[in-house]
Amino acid sequence: MNLNKVFLLGRLTRDPELRVTPSGKTVVNIGLATNSLRMDPDGNRKMLAEFHHIVLFGRLGEVASQYLKKGSLCLIVGRLQTRSWQGQDGVTHKRTEIVAEELQLGPRTVGESEERPLVSSETQEEVEDTISSEKQENQNDDSNDEINVEDIPF
Predict the structure, then answer these.
(1) 145: which strand partners?
(2) CB under 8 Å, gap of 24 or more: what pairs does 46-50 form?
(3) Secondary structure of 70-123 in the HEC alphabet?
(4) What's the CA angle centered on 9, arms 12 and 47, to 5 degrees?
(5) What are the CA-CA distances from residue 68 to residues 26, 36, 77 (Å)?
(6) Cβ proximity of 118 and 104 under 8 Å
(7) Residue 100 — left, alpha, or beta (φ > 0 → left; ψ -120 to 50 → alpha)?
(8) Global pTM?
């Protein structure tokens, strides 16, 4: 069995580009930048950036185009896909993209609406139900904010 899974946490390099196919399917393209800290041969720290092309389909794409903008932080879970096409100049082009399967939006910035969903791979109603149930659980919690070692998942 093989595995094709990608996890990326980064910031959008541009606003989402929403398109609708002739069959009515929603497609959204975003650019995502990730960075890492490396040491150069002289021992100096150097920040390196990688740029990724992300494709989101259907409801996931609609939510991304509604809530994300250039500079937004998000987590993408998806798979790698390479596609090729013939350009008008006769040259064959190739691009490796991440086809998103899940999307988690980053923290809210000042001035954003409180109604923004936290996870958009679910439908809007499921997100609202999840948020409501979490709020109720937090209100019913009488643990005095103490940490129980048995509650740690690892």
Answers:
(1) none
(2) none
(3) CCCEEEEEEEEEEEEEECCCCCEEEEEEEEEEEEEECCCCCCCCCCCCCECCCC
(4) 85
(5) 16, 23, 16
(6) yes
(7) beta
(8) 0.65
Structure-token pair, residue 4: 């094709």
Q: Tokens 């740029």, residue? A: 51
Chain-centroid distance of CA 52 in Å reads 11
From its phi and psi, is residue 153 left (phi > 0), alpha (psi between -120 and 50) or beta?
alpha
Tokens standing for residue 81: 């896909």
Identify which of 55, 49, 47, 53 has the alpha carbon closest to the alpha carbon of residue 34: 49
- Give 32-38 contacts, CB < 8 A, sequence gap 24+: 32/8, 32/74, 32/76, 32/98, 34/8, 34/9, 34/10, 35/10
Computed over every residue of the chain, the mean pLDDT equals: 82
- Dihedral, CA of residue 86, residue 91, residue 94 and residue 100, to nearest 10: -40
Q: Which residues of the chain have pLDDT under 70?
A: 109-145, 149, 153-154
